[in-house]
């Protein structure tokens, strides 16, 4: 199809603007990647035939980037290209082949380039044979359209908003946009979109879309949807067939659907087919157990699995004439399940052996088998001690995603919200470890969209280092290691609060998605490379010895202050002579973080007002998974033989830390910058990497069985030791 020179030139300018932003040549373009990408893909809605032009320009720029070794172009352009192919109305065989050859060519590049290229090469292989397959799989999975016994993977998207962090305006805006999207995207409409896209992608202009868009009863639409879906999946599975054979199958279905008299009707141009946004459920995060409860509901919707009895309310059951329960709920039992074997029950000679509706309790052998299956949840390399941060999907054991639903959890907010997520995830993993055979059978994927909260716990000091005032350290780090995340997601940090204050734009266009919802959908669909963050556990010992020690976890920061000292930032105290005398003695015992992973312990005594323990490094050059202890120390122990002038902050890198006050004054602890997570009257505390609950439990069982508390054997030797929180990005970690 011929396109005007002006249209081609406009698309080319948009692509070049994205590349200039990736080069950092223009600060405005660098922060507007998301808007530039959004406008480029919106041109498909205005002119569906422009898909081939966009694909042609993008693949040309990709080939140029590969030749010139400008690798930082490749991943952003690949994501943009695949989204264009998914949304495009029609792509020729030549373009499919050209993109497929390029993806195979860059398989020789290091990770994460080869990982993403392999994923897209597999998608394109199916797309070449079955045009529109990516769109059909995307919409069917996101909207949960399948109704047959061969239920494939289902997606459930949960968006959590903490009302104590997110403003009411932002909460209302997101709730309004998601509800409007759900109302306009009924299952019947989505089925109709899949039918139309499948025909148009395969037949091109030989397909009269207007005839397919006629009003049909919902039952009839579902029947046609199932037939088209069956034909598409059959063609994708069948070996040795090409696009022509698939097109012939769909042409037969198309002829039956529109009638033979209309089958050869000429069509002037390709039509717009909307790509529905995912079904996002918005939840106000007011309860610590809310994440677990929502996952329970997802499991009940998608599977008939047994969940912990404490999570459900057991309904009253009707009785029969003899007072026994009928259709009683399944309960756990240690007996044989045969009525005559139960104590207190007289055996009748004419009674027939019957089994009660209960489930025999599984033993430790089955628990171990389930734990062995759960080993595949760990990222590759996580079972080997290393200080290098892990990223990317596991390739150790082939996964079977089609058998389990996927819960995609979006956290909107700053580091306080992510700290709350880490605590909820730790609680979830503990439940999973205690009941491995009754665990929630679902894949969990986490997404982070940073938004500055309404207020912070302390007012920032303009003289403080930026790292001390940063409230979105996790997302800032992800932006450093993944430029496409920086341009598409981190720009929402200040944009979402501004957009929430604007009046909603009235529109009845089904293809018009609000910007926030569109970017969120793009992130969910193409942010599939996780970056793993170590969760740290803290054991707290109070001055009052009658109190039991407390345990908690944190993700980004632990702030330590002497309780009698004025509340101010650690870095500001040396500049204020009035509070110098209020410093106190703190002893720190630590295990030093070494790249060789050797254990080297140390100890020092500081006279300071407190400390800040951070888990995210200041820069990418020192990206080690360890604790960074910042202090405004006045003196150090003699074994180090060094002194630091007042006003200089020192940093200590450690794998684990123990800290205690040497005076009568106690410590105050604040976790993850959250004023709701504060511990007072603390005498000492211990911080170490949080162990995977399943590993801890299995190790304890092994030690009890062998009677040796230092022995590590059985399955625990092969299990993930550390609890890592995966947060999805577009590329994982790109090493410069």
TrEMBL record:
InterPro entries per record: PIK3R5/6 (IPR019522)
GO CC entries: phosphatidylinositol 3-kinase complex, class IB
Pfam families: PI3K_1B_p101
Molecular functions (GO terms): 1-phosphatidylinositol-3-kinase regulator activity
Name of the protein this chain belongs to: Phosphoinositide 3-kinase regulatory subunit 6 isoform X2
Gene expressing this chain: pik3r6
